[in-house]
Amino acid sequence: QGLRWLVGLHDARLNGILADDMGLGKTVQVIALLCYLVEVRGEVGPFLIAAPSSVLPNWAGELARWAPRLKVVDYHGSAETREQIWLEQVGWGPGGWGSCVYEFLMGRYDRPRLSRLRYCHIIVDEGHRLKNAGCKLNSELAHYRTSSRLLLTGTPLQNRLDELWSLLNFLMPSLFDSGDDFAAWFSAPLDALRGAGGCGSREGDVLRPFMLRRLKESVASELPAKSEVVLTAALGPYQASLMDIVKNGFQRAAAVGGINKAVNNTVMEMRNICNHPFISKLHPELGESFLPHTAQRHCGLPPLVTLCGKMELLDRLLVRLHNHHTTGGCGGCGGFRHKVLLFATMTRALDLVEEYLEWRGFEWARLDGSTAAAERGALIADFNRPDSDTFIFLLSLKAGGVGLNLQAADTVILYDTDWNPQLDLQAQARAHRIGQTREVRVFRLLTAGTIEQHIAAVAEEK
């Protein structure tokens, strides 16, 4: 169905959004389209994929797996490397396929030459990045000439209706030229349907030609179940003391510097303390050494664990997961050990979890915004190997929460909660996707009676 819809768009010379639920194989559907156009229709390309750097290795791997005969050019690397790629490989022949990260498509030296080519198709992966009509990526991609544009996103609408208009405006600026008209047309029916979980006939009639969206429960009933459990931790005494200082400081800051700035600073500091007091600006370097010994250690655990309620909870959870084996697989050959994805919104929190894993002796891997593109594919491939020793994969929510296939994991831990619930859903879909054979359990860690519970409530409301 997805391939037929994509071919139909091509034949009608329409642009569109493939908005299937996360984990339903949008990448494979696009590769199938490419193969069809090249082998059946005789299209000569070139084709271009624009993607975040974190998912470029996944595209390379899937193209090599499903379309090994296609000529593929990965346009990335240092300035010297990209220059060499341009001179030696960008003479894309029949069936040529180029993949490029956003930053280079917008690069001062890259965009002028890359935009000189006329593309058969431009596919923008993680297309929700264009939800802001005024963003640089949106304006830079307007310089690229193409016969067809296709956006891939599992979350076409995240927060506001104008985000969907921005995507449609990028695809068909002459048809969706006014955000105000779009809002007036859709707002009333959407408000009436809020909470109904459906889409009215007006919305369906307007969007059906341009957007295909299918949910896992409707097209992938064989997919194992996913369940979510919220685990709450109490603030430790040291955390509670730091929190009191922040609350008292908020009142003074609001009186001096203005309420908005005071709120923003206070909320961020409260989140820091919940994630770990060592992240807090109020915690001096090695400040834990000045606390009474009884406050630092108990049950043989280091201050890294004992001074943070959430870290202590994480320790109990990971020790249990690491020691517990589930039956399955090949009958008498033994069980599977749980494999875990841990997502955090802050890399500083990942730093501390990494330090904890070293102390415990658990095998781990890590991917965040600082991980080189060349390393990402190898990290993912190693984690997914059946004989991999890696127990837990640490990922920053924004760099590791989109476009990655990590079906080897059966457990997802959300160390903290983002204001945008779609980011958390995207993270969960790294494991709960086509190819998963085991039930996926999601553990959301929250600190009781703090800003974290408020953030979770706001996200749930959205």
Automatic annotation (TrEMBL):
<dbReference type="GO" id="GO:0016787">
    <property type="term" value="F:hydrolase activity"/>
</dbReference>
<keyword id="KW-0378">Hydrolase</keyword>
<dbReference type="InterPro" id="IPR027417">
    <property type="entry name" value="P-loop_NTPase"/>
</dbReference>
<dbReference type="InterPro" id="IPR049730">
    <property type="entry name" value="SNF2/RAD54-like_C"/>
</dbReference>
<dbReference type="InterPro" id="IPR014001">
    <property type="entry name" value="Helicase_ATP-bd"/>
</dbReference>
<dbReference type="InterPro" id="IPR000330">
    <property type="entry name" value="SNF2_N"/>
</dbReference>
<dbReference type="InterPro" id="IPR001650">
    <property type="entry name" value="Helicase_C-like"/>
</dbReference>
<protein>
    <recommendedName>
        <fullName>SNF2 super family</fullName>
    </recommendedName>
</protein>
<dbReference type="Pfam" id="PF00176">
    <property type="entry name" value="SNF2-rel_dom"/>
</dbReference>
<feature type="domain" description="Helicase ATP-binding">
    <location>
        <begin position="7"/>
        <end position="174"/>
    </location>
</feature>
<dbReference type="InterPro" id="IPR038718">
    <property type="entry name" value="SNF2-like_sf"/>
</dbReference>
<dbReference type="GO" id="GO:0005524">
    <property type="term" value="F:ATP binding"/>
</dbReference>
<dbReference type="Pfam" id="PF00271">
    <property type="entry name" value="Helicase_C"/>
</dbReference>
<feature type="domain" description="Helicase C-terminal">
    <location>
        <begin position="313"/>
        <end position="462"/>
    </location>
</feature>
